[in-house]
Design brief:
The chain is α/β, with parallel strands linked by helices. The protein has nine helices and eleven strands. The protein has a single domain (8-275), classed as 3-Layer(aba) Sandwich (Rossmann fold), CATH 3.40.50. The chain has a seven-stranded parallel β-sheet with strand order 3-2-1-4-5-6-9, sandwiched between helices. Strands 7-8 form a two-stranded parallel ribbon. The chain has a two-stranded antiparallel sheet with strand order 10-11.
């Protein structure tokens, strides 16, 4: 419980999936976790999972959570998330930009409104929240920002192309994730002097979340690339528990990154080791 003791961390999209997993792991490491999503008490999109559910899991492990309803597509909601965090928790040390629900449709059915929504979720919101959070982190003398990336940011080879590349809607999502990777590296450079680290964390393949299941992109062919959420949660903890200037500007692909640094993957409650790696104290 000591790695993040005294730290305050925002995790967007914390009601389910990767966001929930990261929030639980940061909570078990001692952080006060600000859980942000649209689904506060009740789901807003028909999928299982609310902030109240995530908070219950964190508190059951002895952690502390604060719930703040937030729609990352809305500028005023983003501003309110940061200001309310400062008001209720007194500081902001860590920002994890995870929120977003991918929309995969054919080019013909992808309206400009849908495209703007995806851009707002996956690119504008992480940039804006980083901008707002950095102002407080500068005053504190340090901070950590982690953006959720994707292996889809790597351009596909072909022809022939794999099933995912030819699946409608993959192009915009992948392009936005590539932009997030590039944004992260440049923000790391810009904020280095302020002792604020900026990194990407991403699955090596995919994490089977409710959103991913709804997309229908997990096939018999792609099942082999599905990984437990615990790897990406542990990788996030590793990024935000290191001194900012020692680990910044990285594109950390979950268990590959953990292999590289020799850190074991723990359960989300931090009480057991799921995958032991050499040269690690845990």
């Amino acid at each position: 419980m000591s790695e993040l003791a005294g730290k305050v961390a925002i995790v967007t999209g914390a009601s389910r999936g990767i966001g929930r997993g990261i929030a639980e792991r940061l909570g078990s490491a001692g952080a006060t976790v600000i859980l942000a999503a649209r689904s506060l008490e009740h789901t807003t999109d028909g999928m299982a999972g609310t902030l109240r559910d995530t908070a219950a899991a964190i508190e059951a492990s002895g952690g502390k959570a604060i719930l703040i309803a937030c729609d990352v597509e809305d500028e005023h909601s983003r501003v309110a998330l940061i200001s309310e965090t400062i008001r209720r928790a007194g500081r902001l040390d860590i920002l994890v930009n995870n929120a977003g629900r991918a929309l995969h449709e054919s080019l013909e059915s992808f309206t400009s409104a849908k495209a703007r929504s995806q851009i707002e979720q996956y690119l504008t919101a992480p940039f804006d929240l980083a901008r707002l959070a950095a102002a407080h982190m500068r005053k504190q003398g340090q901070g950590w920002i982690v953006n959720l990336g994707s292996s889809t940011a790597i351009a596909p080879s072909g022809p022939p192309y794999d099933d995912y590349a030819t699946h409608g809607g993959a192009a915009l999502y992948a392009a936005l994730k590539a932009a997030v990777h590039r944004l992260t590296i440049n923000l790391a450079a810009e904020l280095f002097a302020d002792n604020i680290s900026v990194n990407v964390v991403a699955p090596v393949g995919a994490v089977l979340t409710p959103g991913v299941e709804a997309l229908g992109v997990i096939t018999e062919e792609t099942k082999a690339y599905v990984e437990p959420v615990e790897h990406i949660a542990e990788a996030t903890l590793a990024l935000v528990s290191a001194p900012p200037r020692t680990m910044t500007g990285k594109i950390a692909f979950s268990y590959m990154f953990l292999d590289e640094i020799g850190r074991s993957t723990h359960a989300l409650d931090g009480k057991s080791i799921l995958q032991k790696r050499p040269n690690t104290g845990g």
